[in-house]
Amino acid sequence: MATVQQLSTKHVLGIKYLTAEDIHLIFDTAQTFKEVLNRPVKKVPSLRDVTIANLFFENSTRTRISFELAEKRLSADVVNFSASSSSVKKGETLLDTVNNILSMKVDMVVMRHPAPGAHHFLSQHIDANIINAGDGTHEHPTQALLDAFSMQEAIGDLTGKKVAIFGDILHSRVALSNIFCLQRLGAKVRVCGPPTLIPKYINQLGVEVSYSVLDTLRWCDVANILRIQLERQDIKYIPSLREYSKYFGINKDLLDQLDKRIVVMHPGPINRGVEITSDVADSEHSIILQQVENGVAVRMAVLYLLAATR
Q1: Is there a catalytic annotation at residue 162?
Q2: Does residue 63 carry a catalytic annotation?
Q3: Taking the model in full, what pTM does it have?
Q4: Which of 13, 54, 175, 298 could cross-link 146 (Cys pair, CB 3.0–4.6 Å)?
Q5: Of 11, 34, 140, 227, catalytic
Q6: Which domains does the chain have, with CATH numbers?
Q7: Counting Cβ atoms within 10 Å, is residue 76 exposed (0-12), middle (13-18) or buried (19+)?
Q8: 24 an active-site residue?
Q9: What is the pLDDT of residues 190-237, one digit of tens each?
Q10: Does the active-site annotation cover 62?
Q11: What's the pLDDT tens digit per position in 254-263?
Q12: What mean pLDDT, rounded, does the chain reach?
């Protein structure tokens, strides 16, 4: 990859700070890296002199592995940090933790943190590039980028396409980032779920709201299905998972009632039998595994383009 176009920002703190041009540049770069990942030798020396710290203050499987694999495919030096086995447990502050890591000459920080805005705070105090791998219920920008990239692969240009986001919108950082990203790309967005799990401010974001799963499935070209985030709920927002599945779960019977083929997605982890049944998750409608594959290419693109801003 000879000529490197640059992003308009030195951090990826959230989709709302990226332009449509930034997103298209990431997609074009990800497409190139996807071709690299399908070669017999899946490694390039693009970030050979770059050291990246993965700071995860919350549990993660897919995102952490995806970032680490992307970094190693780019030949970066990788440092992994887990809050559960660190000095954070002894009372060390976030800024002290990061500054100690940066004193070891780290160039980029990939961080997941339970506090919304933690990445913004860091960006004002340290010189390294920061990538938001999820901050509380705020944003998860690389998940939205890989979701939109996967949609574009499946149905082409997203301008005018109809995308429905189902499930726990209230607690989902994926939903918020997806809304911002899809709107940047010209798609129409609708959210669907129980009234208790739809935030009151959602209309201000220019999205439609529906409480009918079948009506929304008939409306959309893509269904992005989110899980119920019980770990973020301090009170009960639904009577039971069984009742949620009955009224808001996506199953094969619902898809059979449609007069068209739609694309089904899920950012994971999947609660099979709750928000989605196995016969949908594993059906010809599903591109869930493609999302996982695309996640590495998209994160390679983000890392590569941010490194060019240094």
Answers
A1: no
A2: yes
A3: 0.93
A4: 298
A5: 140
A6: 15-139+293-307 (3.40.50.1370), 141-291 (3.40.50.1370)
A7: buried
A8: no
A9: 999 999 999 998 989 999 999 999 999 999 999 999 998 765 445 577
A10: yes
A11: 999 999 999 9
A12: 91
